[in-house]
Design goal:
Elements lengths: L2 E5 L4 H13 L3 E5 L2 H12 L6 E3 L5 E3 L1 H10 L11 H16 L2 H11 L1 H12 L5 H16 L1 H4 L7 H21 L10 H16 L1 H10 L1 H11 L20 H28 L11 E6 L2 E6 L2 H16 L2 H12 L5 H4 L7 E4 L2 E4 L1
Parallel strand pairs: 1-2
Antiparallel strand pairs: 1-3, 3-4, 5-6, 7-8
Helix pairs in contact: 1-3, 1-10, 4-10, 4-14, 5-10, 6-7, 9-12, 10-11, 10-12, 11-12, 13-14
The chain binds glutathione.
Length: 362
């Protein structure tokens, strides 16, 4: 029996899992997460409707793309998506957090403000693959409405939209320069950072037609990178750049993360600390309130998911465990990246664990 991935073409994180599994050469079958699959498999096994979900050949259920990736990475001796060297590994871990937990904002904005009608059809096709086009549209409107409803709580509104677009277009320009010289972020092999970015940059920002038109027009080299990521020609191929080299062209991208996302994560950590003091025995909610963020000089409010802080523990743990010349080399790189002191001096909230599909206080 092969492994099974329950997912859908329009899903952000399914794209991340699929790109990894294809590059890793994992023998798996993708099963569409139709309404029946949610009801009969996903909800009973995971406890809530979420994709992607991996059911391994021996029946283990793994949810969350990071856990799916680590499941296969830890069981294999072949080439890895985690660079071995300190600077590259830290950059890759940081950009996974940026893609997974921050670029959801432009992804959701462009999907719902440029592709709404089209995407209702996609929701319907994924939910009821056997239904007629008309029935799918009706079903899709109902299912899609929940997702569209996330836009305001992600901080997407008429005041922030111009800034979200300015930031996304600037990011595209930065990535376009980078991918003119390199196939992936860190050489000829995709890293965990590429996988973080491919989630938002594939399903919502490339595959949704109006978003795809924008990407292909403004940043054709980014579109080519998306195509390389999702249409893997040679699994397990490629190398990271020699001598722990981090291309200069990645610096503005990490700077954007440090400038936009890191202060928000810091505010979130403070809020989670207060929440945990007040609710020591409660189950951790998906969000502990709304907090201010700033993009391109414009402020907005968005939900603060503790899950983003669990993701941030990964680069923080890696950075803090570095010693000797590795730590010196990494600090030298970070010191050349504006606003990175917010990461170097991050004030932790409570430590989190993610197990059995749930976050708990560690
Ligand atoms: N961090 C997760 C998130 C998975 C996720 O949020 N999936 C979306 C679809 S792409 C979903 O099912 N959302 C429904 C929900 O969260 O209620 C991962 O990496 O797998």
């Amino acid at each position: 029996m092969t492994h099974k991935l329950y997912g859908a073409p329009l899903s952000l994180y399914s794209g991340k899992a699929r790109a990894y599994l294809d590059w890793k050469g994992v023998d798996y079958e993708e099963i569409l997460s139709s309404a029946d699959v949610y009801r009969d498999i996903i909800v009973p096994k995971v406890g809530r409707p979420i994709i992607p979900v991996m059911e391994t050949a021996d029946g283990e259920i793994v949810q969350d793309t990071t856990c799916i990736i680590d499941h296969f990475e830890s069981g294999s001796e072949g080439p890895s998506v985690y660079p071995d060297t300190p600077k590259q590994r830290l950059i890759a871990l940081l950009l996974e957090v940026f893609g997974d937990e921050w670029l959801v904002i432009p992804a959701m904005h462009y999907r719902w403000n440029y592709n709404e009608e089209w995407v209702y059809g996609e929701f319907g096709a994924a939910s009821a693959p056997e239904a007629s086009k008309q029935e799918q549209l009706a079903i899709g409107r109902e299912r899609g409405a929940n997702f569209k409803g996330f836009c305001p709580i992600l901080g997407i509104n008429p005041q922030t939209i111009p800034a979200i677009e300015a930031s996304y277009e600037a990011l595209l320009a930065e990535l376009n320069i980078h991918f003119t010289a390199h196939d992936y972020l860190l050489g000829s092999r995709p890293s965990i950072g590429d996988l973080g970015l491919i989630g938002p940059l594939y399903a919502h920002l490339y595959r949704d037609p109006a978003s795809g038109e924008i990407m292909k027009r403004l940043a054709p080299q980014v579109a080519r990178w998306v195509e390389r990521m999702v249409d893997v020609k040679t699994p397990l191929s490629g190398e990271f750049l020699a001598d722990d080299y981090v291309p200069e062209t990645l610096i503005p991208i990490v700077e954007r993360m440090m400038n936009e996302q890191m202060p928000f994560l810091q505010t979130s950590a403070g809020m989670l600390s207060l929440w945990a003091e007040a609710n020591p025995d409660a189950e951790i909610p998906r969000a502990v309130g709304m907090a201010e963020f700033e993009i391109e000089g414009v402020s907005g409010q968005r939900i603060t998911p503790p899950f983003s802080l669990w993701m941030l523990q990964r680069p923080l743990d890696f950075y803090r465990a570095l010693t000797g010349e590795n730590r010196v080399a990494v600090d030298e790189m970070l010191n050349s990246i504006a606003h990175s002191d917010g990461f170097q001096n991050f004030k932790d909230g409570p430590r989190l664990r993610f197990e059995e599909f749930k976050l708990t206080l560690a």
